[in-house]
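Tutorial handout. Part one gives the primary structure; part two gives the three-dimensional structure as tokens.
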Amino acid sequence: MLDALALPHPIESRAGTAQLRRATIDDTDAVIALLADDPISAARGDVASDEDRPAYRAGLVEILADASNDLLVVELGDEIVGTLQLTSIPGMARRGARRLLVEAVRVRSDLRSSGIGSGIMRWVSDTAAPALGAAMVQLTSDASRIDAHRFYERLGYVGSHKGFKYTVPQG
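Part two.
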């Protein structure tokens, strides 16, 4: 886990004040539900099936045990309504600059456009990145997520690169 992050942190939104906090193993089901709530994730297999729960749980345990990673959740009232993963990456490029990688940003579908996502991403760039000594925040977004691209651009992110992925055959 990324110890330099001061959490929990309030996120103001039109839905009320939410709390951004570090995930715990007890949040596994809520995070799975957020992934399944996204049509692109669901098409990739994130469908919240019971047989996949041990794999998700093992992933969360590994993330939380890694000093370069963290999984955060957004809590509104008693419900988990958002999540993201952060990875701090040391580098050689850009004179040894550290990067903060943002992955799997999700806000529950009925709360999108409420300001929760903007609050999360502002916290990442304004608070988390400086706390971790990151010179850059980077993320990838599926090419079909046109609304997400507009969202990130409104927040000052620049679509400067073309990303490539290779799926390793399983079996």
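Part three, for discussion. The helical segments are 28-36, 39-43, 53-65, 93-96, 116-132, 146-154. The beta strands are 9-13, 16-22, 69-76, 79-89, 98-107, 134-139.
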